[in-house]
Specification:
By secondary structure, this protein is mainly alpha-helical. The protein has six helices and no strands. α2 packs antiparallel against α3. The chain is globular and about 45 Å long.
């Protein structure tokens, strides 16, 4: 029971709240950039091309406001942050595609379905990403 409480306390922390807040800002900018990019390319490509916007914003805000006391080198932090997000990308893309093209579009106008699906997909890796970033990427040693 103690382990469950310890895990729960990680997610009830002010740090997790800041992670969700800065992640929401990054996700919104990622989502918004996808809308703009989608004017020029297909939905699938727009999701891919917008992903770096979210990563850059998320890294910068996390470094400044969520994990400012990391003892890791900047190179290590950038590498692992990119690695975590690159590994999460197939999940984000797959969820966005399945929900947008195959599920939500059955009862919503296509563009709204794609927008909602992409928003949901961006949020999917949050819980796992926080733990990895807290204990590996930005570890306070």
């Amino acid at each position: 029971m103690t382990d469950i409480r310890r895990i729960g306390s990680i997610y009830r922390s002010e740090q997790f709240a800041r992670f969700v807040l800065v992640g929401s800002v990054a996700a919104f900018l990622h989502w918004l950039s996808r809308l703009v990019i989608n004017s020029f390319v297909s939905f699938s490509w727009a999701v891919i091309l917008a992903y770096p916007v979210g990563i850059i914003v998320a890294f910068t805000l996390n470094k400044l406001y969520v994990f400012p006391y990391s003892r890791r080198s900047l190179t290590f932090e950038i590498f692992f942050f990119l690695l975590v997000n690159i590994l999460a990308f197939p999940v984000v893309w797959t969820v966005a595609y399945i929900l947008g093209e195959l599920v939500f579009s059955l009862w919503m106008p296509r563009q709204i379905a794609l927008a909602v699906a992409h928003g949901v997909a961006i949020a999917v890796p949050v819980v796992v990403s926080f733990v990895i970033n807290k204990f590996i990427t930005f570890a306070e040693a």
